[in-house]
Design brief:
mainly alpha
C-alpha cells in the first residue's frame, strides 16, 4: 500500500555517491592531464577502419568545423543597420 522510504533513500544515497565519484574522477583527470596517453587501436576500431576505409586524416577532414564563417545572414544584418 505505502512504499517504504528505505528504497528511495538507498537509491538517492547511491546516486549521490556516483556523482561524488564522477566529480573526483574529473578533478583527477584535470590535475593529471599531462599523464594521459592515447590507447592503441583495439580490435573493433581496426575492423571498422578496414571495413569503411577511414583513416585518422579522413575522419579529421570530415569532422564538423567550429570556426565561424561570415555568411549571408551577417551581411543582411549589417545592411539593415
Amino acid at each position: 500500500m505505502y512504499e517504504h522510504p528505505y528504497l528511495s533513500q538507498q537509491l538517492t544515497r547511491h546516486d549521490q555517491e556516483q556523482m561524488e565519484r564522477a566529480a573526483a574522477e574529473r578533478l583527477r583527470l584535470i590535475e593529471h592531464a599531462d599523464q594521459i596517453v592515447p590507447r592503441p587501436e583495439g580490435v573493433v576500431r581496426r575492423m571498422l577502419r578496414r571495413a569503411f576505409g577511414r583513416t585518422a586524416v579522413a575522419t579529421s577532414a570530415t569532422a564538423p568545423t567550429t570556426a565561424r564563417v561570415a555568411g549571408g545572414c551577417e551581411a543582411a544584418a549589417a545592411h539593415a543597420q
